[in-house]
Design brief:
Blueprint lengths: L3 E5 L3 H12 L3 E5 L5 H6 L4 E2 L3 H6 L3 E4 L4 H9 L13 E4 L5 H12 L4 E4 L2 E2 L2 H6 L2 E7 L1 H14 E6 L6 H29 L4 H8 L7 H12 L8 H17 L5 H18 L20
Parallel strand pairs: 1-2, 1-4, 2-3, 4-5, 5-6, 8-9
Antiparallel strand pairs: 6-8, 7-8
Amino acid sequence: MKAVVGVVGLGAMGSGMAQSLRRAGFELKVFDVRAGAAEAFARDGGTACASAAELAAGCDVLVSVVVNAAQTEDLLFGQGGAAAALRAGSVFVMCSTVDPNWSAALEGRLAERSLLYLDAPISGGAAKAASGQMTMMTSGTPAAYAKAGPVLDAMAAKVYRLGDRAGAGSKVKIINQLLAGVHIAAAAEAMALGLREGVDPAALYEVITHSAGNSWMFENRMAHVLAADYTPLSAVDIFVKDLGLVLDLARASKFPLPLSSTAHQMFMQASTAGYAKEDDSAVIKIFPGIELPKP
């Protein structure tokens, strides 16, 4: 029999992951703090729950796709939290980008309740989440993998098993976010220079995306700039948080990260300028004297 799976957090990634699980035939329960989000999802299959505790009570595997460690803490241990409702032997799959040390400690806290844990950050974007083609960077005990493995495989094309205890998955995700944040910042800087110099932005985009200077982030995020569409698939403040985690990790071992530090300051500047909730490509708006494409 397939596991009963719960998904908490039906944002851009979580809703796609839940769709993949539903398509794979799992008995699915969903919850989101936004009024009506779970009910809207469940109209096409699955059960909407009124609280995290209600969802957790019937789950074998609970997949958490909330924003950060604070929201995960509240989900598990806040009033009406999931930890107290999960059955012994259930698996909590944590997909947020968090401090690896916090993730490692969470494994022990859940083990005290006879709960299994997988440190399992995700990458790939909303489209890949919806098609079951995203990447998961995971670490945890063999027992946790034995129970949750089919669930992970239903959600992701690549499930990397990076260690037998929590923390390694989050470390790899932090490094991925270092590159992602620096690449977005560099892409914005390059496009801004092109605009300042009077280069046609569509022509610049066409050339760069077919040249050695291209990156996935340039191709993806500068398309948002050309369309003047700053709808937040991943917001500026996500990289304020994630690059902050990158710098915290490196600072603990006195490891220099000059490019990450500069990119973090760029996202901080964009956030304080009023673009915090816009798409992370809005970091381009910090550059003076450029005329951005209009819708």
